[in-house]
Amino acid sequence: MNTLHIGGMDISVVAVLVTVTIFAGALGYFLARRKAHKESLLQPASPPKDYTVFLKGIQYILANDTDQAIEAFTKAVQINSETIETYVALGNLFRAKGEIDRAIRIRQSILLRERVDAETKLQALFDMALDYKLGGLLQRAISTFEEVISRAPKRLDAYEELESLCEATHDWQRAYELQQEMRKLSNTNNQHIMAHLRTEQAK
Question: Rg of the Cα trace of the chain?
Answer without folding.
Answer: 20
